[in-house]
């Protein structure tokens, strides 16, 4: 094989960055000094970061609800509640416990730094603020928050999206497809006789089956296709731009791959599994996600009664 060159590496890195499609993050800045807000906006605002300024700390709760920021920059000394007080209050509210908060203080003394962490802040920045340092600290926090958000949306066993975030993703794909007057196919997949797999080969073996099927589904299809674990041994795939017929062709290739896989039972035996699927397409079978899920589920049941290891559309 051809050696992996620096150009290949650069191209791969570019694809990875493009695949991440970073959404814009929003930072809320609270400071009683309009000049300080202007300076922070100037330092932070970019293509990736939108900055919203707030001069009155009394309006913090409203502003949080309205702008739903990804990160909060709080001045410490303000008329009314201090940045410390506000931070402590936020940490006692379930909705804002995880929000990254950076305190900005003119004091660099140890007691101020300790008070910042005791109030529940993630970090502090001292005035005068160094633009590069501020940007680096904010970006690091935003990246951490993004990663933990992403992890919370994924099922640990299969690496696929959990039902709720998956449904959100599917909803936006569906309206995208309808706007572009393109079809979208929804596939319900269910492992055949999985209870028997657990009974015969053990629950850990069953878990390994789900992990490998999840990885396979995660690796196949296109990036914009949505794949999720519906629950138990059930998966859902949303294929943008595919009719039920073309989705069936794509899915049968994946099912053929599954049929080729061998799994190890907890007692060392080797076994195989099959999958059944039901497909519904938009707009032909329905235009809402609920309707498509209902039709796909009914067709999955038909695949089961018609003998399993098959796709119904
Ligand atoms: P069918 O072909 O009709 O789909 O039969 P089935 O046995 O697959 O269907 P059923 O719904 O009766 O059983 C599903 C089983 O999947 C039951 C449950 O114990 C098992 N299961 C659900 N989630 C997990 C999991 O995370 N790990 C393991 N090992 N088993 C699971
Ligand atoms: Mg101030
Ligand atoms: Mg099932
Ligand atoms: Mg099953």
Automatic annotation (TrEMBL):
This is diguanylate cyclase. Signal peptide: none annotated. Transmembrane segments: none annotated. Residues 182-313 form the GGDEF domain. The modification 4-aspartylphosphate is found at residue 75. The chain holds residues 364 to 676 of 676 of the full protein. Residues 26-142 form the Response regulatory domain. It comes from the Bacteria.
């Amino acid at each position: 094989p051809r050696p992996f060159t620096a150009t290949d590496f650069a191209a791969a890195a570019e694809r990875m960055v493009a695949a991440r499609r970073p959404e814009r993050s929003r930072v809320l800045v609270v400071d009683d000094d309009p000049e300080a807000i202007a300076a922070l906006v100037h330092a932070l605002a970019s293509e990736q970061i939108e900055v919203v300024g707030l001069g009155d700390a009394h309006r913090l709760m409203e502003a949080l609800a309205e702008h739903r920021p990804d990160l909060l920059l709080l001045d410490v000394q303000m008329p009314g509640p201090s940045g410390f007080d506000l931070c402590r209050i936020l940490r006692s509210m379930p909705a804002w416990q995880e929000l990254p908060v950076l305190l900005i203080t003119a004091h660099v003394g140890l007691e101020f730094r300790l008070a910042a962490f005791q109030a529940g802040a993630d970090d502090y920045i001292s005035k005068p603020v160094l633009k590069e340092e501020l940007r680096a600290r904010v970006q690091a926090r935003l990246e951490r928050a993004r990663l933990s958000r992403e992890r919370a949306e994924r099922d640990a066993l299969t690496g696929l999206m959990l039902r709720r975030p998956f449904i959100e993703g599917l909803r936006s794909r569906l309206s995208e497809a309808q706007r572009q007057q393109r079809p979208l196919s929804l596939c319900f997949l269910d492992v055949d006789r999985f209870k028997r797999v657990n009974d015969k080969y053990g629950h850990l073996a069953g878990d390994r089956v789900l992990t490998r099927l999840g990885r396979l589904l995660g690796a196949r299809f296109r990036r914009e296709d949505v794949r999720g674990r519906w629950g138990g041994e059930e998966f859902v795939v949303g294929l943008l731009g595919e009719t039920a017929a073309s989705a069936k062709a794509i899915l049968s290739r994946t099912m053929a791959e599954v049929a080729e896989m061998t799994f190890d039972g907890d007692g060392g035996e080797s076994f195989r599994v099959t999958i059944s699927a039901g497909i519904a397409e938009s707009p032909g079978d329905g235009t809402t996600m609920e309707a498509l899920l209902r039709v796909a589920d009914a067709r999955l049941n038909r695949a089961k009664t018609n003998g399993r290891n098959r796709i119904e559309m």
